[in-house]
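Progress note, project year one: complex with zinc ion.
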Amino acid sequence: MLTGIRQMEMKEVPEPGITNANEVKIKMKVVGICGSDIHYYTQGAIGTQKVGYPFAVGHEGAGIVTETGNAVKRVKPGDIIAIDPAMPCHKCDQCLSGRHHTCRNLRFLGCPGQAEGCLTEYIVMPEDSCFPLNAGLNADHGSISEPLAIGVYAVKKSGGVKGLKTGILGFGPIGMSVMLAAKAQGSGNIFVTDKIDSRLGIAKKEGAIHLGNPLKDDIVKDIQGKEKHGLDVVFECCGQQEAFDQAVDLLKPGGRLIVVGIPEFDRWSMNVENTRRKEIMIQFIRRQVDCVQFSLDLMQSGKINIGNMITHRFPLSKTKEAFDLVASYSDGVMKAMIDF
Ligand SMILES: [Zn+2]
Ligand SMILES: [Zn+2]
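Model obtained:
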């Protein structure tokens, strides 16, 4: 549990039990560390969402079902499942219109003020959040399905990338998830930028046609040199103002800018002339909706291979080390996993 800024302790808590007929009790097997977990660890908050200590984070989990409520049908004890961390109310206007990711009463695993996270031995979740893993998939696939679903959703919201020239600015686990989803859907040449060379190395392995490091390269000039008419779609995946501006510069007229990154500042700014004259379409992304099963299917069919994403593993007892590593962006870390 987080106990302060960059502080973490192992604590004994009561074992949770099933209280509703639609609930599933899960023994965690693996949890991936997300950038948002790191924000809570190093800053104690994301925007207005402040951690009240002690607090368990973690929302990229997979586990084994140990018990089910009477009304549960889709999973049974012994099943290994992926966990969708979102617990919408299914009653509000957003839920009723199919936008349960923006549910007015959303509870989300490991989100302060909503629900404790899954960096804990047992959790209880509604059946709707449980996705049994089909043959060929293991708990790592289950855990990675959470960030991957965000990439799959971002590509879906972009209107599709088949045959298009695609830019991905920021190649952390979410940028990589966007790339895996874009490749699975037949994207044309993919241009990737990141400030960390080891991440560009992974992008190269994944088949990016161009790699740029904005700390050393003039990425706009370099990419324009290769694609003088500009890119069709650019995914901003790092939450940086400069990347937003680069995206606008890189896009062709009528191009689409998909903003996936979570900035640490309160307001984006944009160049009026460039965005207006080029008639740039801008789409913001809030997590994902209904893309977990599709992400699992893409991995099962081999259209998405996550072999290059998981770079580090730690036992639960070394969670703090894992968080310090991810927070430092060192040792070539992409995704670090906690094993139970
Ligand atoms: Zn996450
Ligand atoms: Zn709702």
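DSSP finds ten helices and 19 strands in the chain.
The chain has a mean pLDDT of 97.
No further modelling is planned for this target in the current period.
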